[in-house]
Design brief:
Low-confidence stretches: 324-332, 409-425
Number of domains: 2
Order of helices and strands: EHHHEEEEEEEEEHHHEHHHEEEHEE
Strand content: 15-25%
Mean pLDDT: 86
Structural class: alpha+beta
Largest sheet: 7 strands, antiparallel
Radius of gyration: 27 Å
Length: 425
């Protein structure tokens, strides 16, 4: 099982200068390697799709990739000796980031989805570097030792559980200071809940008035973190606008504005984690809508949708359902979050299935066929639960069929709704 812990660090003035200097040098190297990729791309691509039979073929320059760009770091330290102040593993992560950004632009990610053209990092925009290998004895009590930086004080607000091994350590700079993110792994922790109950399922419908409405009638009102902080953000933004460009007073005002935005983001994220834990402690299967949030943010409700943070909440809910929670030494894993088709969940009647078209302003569902009358969001949540139940049955059936085809399976397999028995020679 993999997880990550984040701790705030308290570097000295000299250590903070080293971190800032490291980030700035890594930013310059990132831009240089990205420029190499763009130069090769522009020099070797052809604007036409056909040519005569006899033509001159120009010499093609070697394509920059992760390995030859990483090999160039040896010469970099010879030409620019100040790069020796950066640990080799940290410096080798830069070509990996460049290749990832460039490949996502040309080839797409694992799902084939392409990203936009990579942009050069401006001053102060490169904020994280990573040590890919780390020894546990370098993190003792409230001290952590980072190569080329020194021993830093760590605010340990929670202990690392026994058995977990530290894989990587990332140092990141945020508006309110510096943090270290520890990537932890423990292969011995089980990832399947022993008492998983497929009948303990709930459907939730996310919204803007109520953050979610569950199919059992429970609901949580939307906290609206951004709306409640608009006055403070407006005041901080006004101070930034009134300061002279490049002055120290403007830098301080920008820092205060960043802290205000970070506070809003942290409060929203904390709410999402607590809400996800509340649901996962009560239910084993949670059905949610597979929303196209990118399209929804192009409407007039974009600000409220971004304030609610549906995408972040569903991601946190899915991750917490799969992974093991080791906080307070309790294991809670092997749960499921099922995404269902959202089309028609608010229009269909949860009692008879009749479609009742209604505008978004109409908050009560009234069915003319079965005379059912209930909250629009509750009706949608019940429909989401029904679709999630159907999808869960299909998943369990397919997993049982696959397990029965395996020669290592038992003669009788029972999971959730069905029990299958098969005999092997």
């Amino acid at each position: 099982m993999k997880t990550s812990y984040q701790y705030k660090i308290k570097p000295t003035k000299e250590q903070a200068e080293k971190i800032d200097k490291t980030l700035e040098m890594l930013r310059c190297q990132y831009n240089y390697l990205l420029a190499q990729r763009f130069d090769w791309y522009e020099m070797n691509r052809c604007p036409i799709d056909r040519c005569p039979l006899i033509c001159h073929i120009p010499y093609l320059k070697e394509q920059p990739n992760y390995y030859n760009q990483k090999a160039s770091l040896v010469q970099l330290k010879i030409d620019r000796p100040w790069y020796k102040d950066i640990h080799s593993q940290v410096l080798q992560e830069v070509p990996k980031k460049v290749e990832l950004a460039f490949d996502r632009w040309l080839k797409g990610d694992v799902n084939g989805k392409k990203s936009g053209r990579p942009r050069f990092k401006g001053k102060g925009q490169y904020k994280t570097f990573t040590y890919t290998q780390f020894k546990r004895h370098h993190f003792v009590n409230n001290k952590i030792t980072l190569s080329k930086i020194g021993v830093l004080k760590v605010i340990v607000h929670r202990l690392i559980p026994d058995g977990f091994e530290i894989k990587t350590v990332s140092v990141t700079k945020k508006a309110d200071g510096y943090y270290v993110i520890l990537s932890l792994d423990d292969q011995s922790v089980p990832t399947i809940k022993p008492d998983f109950n497929s009948d303990n399922i709930v459907g939730i419908d996310v919204g803007l008035i109520d953050f979610y409405v569950a199919s059992d009638g429970s609901r949580i009102s939307a906290p609206k973190h951004l709306r409640s902080s608009e006055r403070r953000l407006k005041s901080a933004q006004r101070k930034v606008s009134r300061r002279k460009n490049g002055s120290n007073r403007r830098k301080k005002a920008i820092q205060k504005l960043g802290k205000q935005h970070k506070k809003v983001a942290d409060t929203r994220r904390d709410f999402h984690f607590k809400t996800a834990k509340l649901l996962l402690d009560k239910y084993d299967v949670i059905a949610v809508e597979k929303l196209n949030i990118k399209a929804l943010t192009k409407t007039r409700l974009a600000k409220s949708i971004n304030d609610a943070g549906w995408g972040q909440f569903i991601t946190i809910l899915s991750n917490k359902a799969v992974r093991v929670s080791v906080r307070l030494w309790r294991i809670n894993a092997g749960l499921k979050v099922i995404a269902v088709n959202p089309n028609g969940t608010s229009q269909e009647c949860s009692s008879c299935g009749h479609k009742v078209k209604k505008p978004l302003s109409q908050r009560i569902h009234n069915c003319p066929v079965c005379h059912a009358s209930l909250c629009r969001d509750l009706n949608a949540a019940i429909n989401i639960k029904a679709r999630g139940t159907h999808a869960l049955k299909a998943q369990l059936m397919s997993s049982l069929e696959e397990s029965l085809r395996s020669p290592r399976c038992t003669r009788s397999v029972s999971v959730g709704y069905v029990t299958l028995t098969e005999h092997f020679n």
